[in-house]
């Protein structure tokens, strides 16, 4: 019975989200906040597959996203490819690079992985900074188009971006939910709890960790593609470590042990940070960051398992 | 309790009547980094805007309507810049936008403005490709990077009039950041035009702990002049290493940035005399001295290049609003297109920057079409003399003579 009510609630929420742009079409700023929230949530879900489900904490996800964004932009700008063609290329390139690099790095365990992601992200950023073809530090711009153009993935109508971002987030959520209940998901969770036990019962930790990082990076590449098409200008700063940390936050705040964690955390934290900045940012610069930090500290202090931890009867960590 | 209530009612009535009395203000959005690594820069820029707005409002505003600044904090982040621009344009309904500092953010804000038909003027963003996009509502007042570099080459050419020695070879010292790369690209365009040869391109990694091999490369090149572009820490390290290796390039001219950072002179007292740098404005320039005196009274510090530029950009908007006779985006845009200011603003101050005319035009440069750039914009060059920056070029606005060769004492 309780489950039924929950399903009805979720369907109602989904319908509400779908018709929302009809009512706020005259407020592109609000639409923009939603788009940003959907994007951050998608990135955070990608992170959570590694950080939450597999227990491998990455501080380099902005770099996976950056590789995707750069590959797609280069394909469009330098090779004249259609954005829809460059998307699969971006996913493939990102997946390939991460598979090659991390299949070597996963021999190391624990904090070493985190260190490698930091180093990897910085290395890629430096390569782009010094790579003429990729625009060096000046960055790359996608052609500016007036009006809506599906072929070039550029829309004046913010609502279209809203639906695309929403669809992206829901699709990624569905994939994560599927993985969570699949053989792969159980393997990953076993690795998170104890790598040696996993190995003993026939789960190859290396293989599964590489699979996880490749899926996670591919999802980030999709988000990166969306970022490039939405903002239409990218520079190596998108791969800064601070951006990687921002991606981790929604998952931690929402509850990284839950597939829904980043969903809750992302929507909440992005709207909170936008609200705070736009209320206080112009009047008392910095106060919004302080308030944001206080919220972070409070949540982590009182519910280290994240907001969803409040609702979890089993009280798992 | 009743008394308090009565007071509140009274107060709200006064406020209500006051807000009915005045006409709606014209809102100008100003989006800069007010927190984060670029906060100091953003604060200086905003001072210039606030100061201009105060001056304009004291003189009766724009046809009786006051100007009001709505601030937005970009935190120096591209994604945030977009939402700040969206908010200013679609929620606060600003009539025009000033911004940003970093060129990537400016580009993103320009897209928002163009889509919503809100005129935008940048006073600070210099990366060339900003004006290549064909935004109808975006105007750039400051010179673009290549013109900064052209100014430096003009300086190198003019210097021979003072010293009698022509500059034939140059070495470039730049980091691998975007401005560093731009300076190399532009120098390669201008050097042949000015009959000079680039004998060395010394590139380094920003923040590296040692500059010995870089200075050695400069010394080996032994060029007539060194063109430098660095952030503050690297600039300081360069000065120290030049001392250590006892190498004194006769001319060292920098493209502002670290070399005009307020701490550069403090950190390099006694070893930086003779270093020259591009400045957008300088207190001893023969222009804008009275305005700077007023500014100093208000904020306790001199204007810097950024505040002088944002001050001027605010006056440009004011003039455009007046010319348009309304605050409607498309009309103000047309006014900006037609605007042609010579020497001084109508009913306003002189152009305090080192050029005497402001006019936005489309033009081509190095084979690229540019739109709505202020084609008369130019820069000044200042030299460290006695531990202070003294303007030495353009010669007609200069407050001091060029010292040659540089002494580094």
List descriptors.
A: mainly alpha; ABC transporter involved in vitamin B12 uptake, BtuC; 12 helices; 2 strands; 71% helix; 1% strand; B: 409 residues; alpha/beta; Rossmann fold; 2 domains; 15 strands; globular
Oligomer: heterodimer
CATH superfamily of the largest domain in chain B, by name, is Response regulator
Q: Can you tell me the CATH topology of chain A?
A: ABC transporter involved in vitamin B12 uptake, BtuC
Strand order, main sheet of chain A: write it out: 1-2
So, CATH architecture of chain A?
Orthogonal Bundle
Stretches of chain A where pLDDT falls below 50 for ≥5 residues? none
Provide structural commentary:
With 317 residues, chain A is mainly alpha-helical. Chain A has a single domain, classed as Orthogonal Bundle (ABC transporter involved in vitamin B12 uptake, BtuC). Chain A is built from twelve helices and two strands. Chain A has helices at 2-24, 28-53, 61-77, 83-105, 111-129, 158-180, 183-193, 195-200, 205-231, 241-254, 261-280, 287-302; strands at residues 140-141, 233-234. Chain A has a two-stranded antiparallel sheet with strand order 1-2. The radius of gyration of chain A is 20 Å and the shape is globular. Chain A starts with a helix and ends in a 15-residue tail after the last helix. The relative contact order of chain A is 0.17. Chain B has two domains: 24-142 and 286-374, Response regulator (Rossmann fold), CATH 3.40.50.2300; 146-279 and 380-397, Response regulator (Rossmann fold). In chain B, the strands form three sheets. Chain B has a seven-stranded mixed β-sheet, with helices on both faces. In chain B, α11 packs across α12 (329-338). Mean pLDDT of chain B is 88; it is low at 13-21. Chain A binds chain B through residues 27-29, 32-33, 36, 129-130, 136-139, 141, 144, 146, 156, 227, 231-233, 235, 237-238, 274, 277-278, 281-283, 285-286, 288-289, and chain B through 34-35, 39, 70-73, 75, 78-80, 82-84, 86-87, 89-91, 103-104, 107-108, 111, 114-116, 127, 129, 133-135, 176-182.
């Amino acid at each position: 019975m309780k489950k039924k009510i929950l399903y009805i609630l979720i369907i109602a929420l989904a319908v509400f989200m779908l018709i929302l742009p009809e009512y706020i079409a005259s407020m592109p700023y609000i639409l923009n906040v939603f788009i940003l929230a959907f994007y951050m949530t998608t990135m955070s879900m990608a992170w959570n597959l590694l950080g939450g489900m597999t227990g491998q904490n990455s501080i380099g996800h902005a770099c996976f996203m950056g590789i995707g964004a750069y590959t797609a932009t280069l394909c469009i700008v330098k090779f004249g490819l259609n954005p829809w063609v460059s998307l699969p290329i971006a996913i493939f390139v990102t997946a390939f690079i991460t598979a090659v690099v991390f299949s070597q790095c996963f021999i190391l365990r624990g904090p070493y992985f985190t260190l490698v992601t930091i180093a990897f992200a910085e290395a890629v950023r430096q390569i782009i900074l010094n790579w003429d073809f990729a625009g060096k530090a000046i960055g790359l711009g996608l052609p500016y188009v007036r009006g809506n153009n599906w072929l070039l993935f550029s829309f004046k109508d913010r609502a279209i971006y809203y639906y695309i971002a929403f669809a992206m987030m829901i699709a990624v959520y569905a994939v994560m939910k599927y993985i969570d209940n699949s053989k792969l998901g159980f393997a990953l969770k076993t690795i998170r709890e104890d790598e040696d036990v996993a190995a003993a019962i026939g789960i190859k930790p290396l293989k599964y960790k590489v699979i996880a990082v490749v899926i996670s990076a591919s999802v980030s590449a999709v988000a990166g593609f969306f970022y490039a098409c939405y903002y239409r200008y990218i520079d190596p700063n998108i791969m800064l470590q601070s951006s990687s940390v921002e991606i981790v936050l929604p998952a931690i705040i929402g509850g990284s042990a839950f597939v829904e964690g980043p969903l809750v955390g992302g929507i909440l934290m992005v709207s909170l940070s936008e609200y705070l900045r736009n209320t206080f940012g112009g009047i008392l610069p910095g106060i919004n960051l302080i308030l944001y930090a206080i919220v972070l500290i409070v949540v982590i202090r009182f519910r280290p398992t994240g907001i969803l931890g409040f609702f979890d009867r089993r009280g798992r960590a | 309790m009743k008394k308090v209530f009565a007071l509140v009612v009274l107060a709200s009535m006064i406020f209500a009547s006051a807000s009915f009395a005045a006409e709606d203000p014209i809102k100008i959005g100003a989006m800069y980094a007010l927190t984060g690594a670029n906060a100091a820069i953003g604060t200086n820029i905003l001072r210039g805007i606030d100061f201009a707005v105060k001056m304009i409002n004291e003189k009766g505003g724009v046809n009786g309507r006051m100007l009001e600044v709505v601030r937005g904090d970009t935190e120096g982040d591209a994604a945030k810049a977009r939402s700040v621009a969206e908010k200013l344009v679609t929620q606060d309904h600003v009539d025009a936008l000033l911004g940003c500092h970093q060129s990537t953010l400016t580009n993103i804000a320009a897209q928002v403005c163009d889509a919503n038909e809100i005129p935008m003027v940048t006073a600070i963003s210099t990366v060339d490709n900003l004006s290549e996009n064909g935004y109808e509502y975006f105007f750039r007042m400051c010179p673009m990077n290549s013109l900064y570099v052209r100014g430096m080459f003009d300086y190198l050419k003019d210097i021979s009039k003072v010293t009698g020695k022509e500059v034939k070879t140059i070495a470039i010292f730049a980091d691998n950041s975007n401005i560093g790369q731009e300076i190399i690209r532009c120098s390669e365009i201008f050097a042949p035009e000015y009959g000079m040869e680039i004998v060395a391109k010394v590139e380094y990694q920003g923040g590296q702990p040692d500059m010995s091999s870089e200075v050695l490369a400069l010394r080996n090149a032994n060029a007539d002049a060194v063109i430098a572009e660095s952030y503050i820490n690297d600039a300081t390290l360069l000065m120290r290493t030049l001392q250590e290796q006892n190498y004194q390039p006769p001319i060292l001219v920098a493209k502002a940035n670290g070399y005009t950072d307020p701490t550069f002179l403090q950190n390099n007292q006694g070893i930086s005399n003779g270093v020259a740098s591009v400045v957008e404005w300088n207190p001893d320039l023969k222009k804008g001295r009275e305005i700077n005196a007023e500014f100093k009274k208000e904020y306790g510090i001199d204007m810097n290049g950024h505040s002088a530029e944002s001050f001027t950009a605010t006056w440009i908007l004011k003039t455009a609003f007046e010319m348009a006779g309304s605050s409607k985006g498309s009309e103000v845009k047309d006014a900006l297109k037609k605007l042609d200011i010579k020497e001084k603003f109508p009913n306003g101050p002189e152009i305090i920057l080192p050029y005497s005319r402001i006019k936005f035009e489309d033009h081509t440069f190095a084979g690229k079409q540019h739109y709505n750039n202020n084609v008369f914009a130019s820069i000044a060059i200042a030299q460290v003399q006695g531990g202070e920056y003294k303007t030495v070029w353009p010669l007609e606005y200069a407050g001091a003579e060029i010292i040659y060769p540089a002494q580094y004492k």
